[in-house]
Amino acid sequence: MARETSTLYSVLGVSLVAPACEIRAAYRRLARQWHPDRHRGDELAKRRFQQIQEAYEVLIDSRTRETYDLKLVHLLDVEDYLARFKELILTASGLDMQPARTQHLTSLDHRQLLLTAA
């Protein structure tokens, strides 16, 4: 990542290309560490635990994660982004699918396309 921004991935301390098993392990570790029962009366710990839960709920479900990732596309390195979709690209190539006709989009058209997809 070119710049550090608070994301759901950073809440759990995982990379943008982390598999579900790594997200689950990070969630369990952090949930035990910040559970309100271990920090009775500590509002900071309670808020941190809620952030961890919210991040996990979004990132563990593949559909909500895809929607969330679309909002973060500007933070991804091209290599990392393509690595996430490597299997899909290989599958599409194996099915002899032809790419859609290329269009030259202006940056405004591209932003509108991303907004309508989200």
Q: Structural class of the secondary structure composition?
A: mainly alpha
- How many runs of DSSP E, i.e. beta strands? 0
Average pLDDT rating: 79
Q: Which series of helices and strands comes N to C?
A: HHHHHHH
Helix content: 55-70%
Number of helices: 7
Describe the overall structure.
By secondary structure, the chain is mainly alpha-helical. The protein is built from seven helices and no strands. Helix 2 (20-34) runs antiparallel to helix 3. The longest helix has 18 residues, at 43-60. The chain is elongated and about 50 Å long. The relative contact order is 0.12.
In short:
By secondary structure, the chain is an all-alpha fold.
List the main descriptive attributes of the protein structure presented here.
mainly alpha, 64% helix, 118 residues, 7 helices
Compile the SSE list and pairings.
Elements: H1 8-12, H2 20-34, H3 43-60, H4 62-71, H5 78-84, H6 86-94, H7 107-117
Helix pairs in contact: 2-3
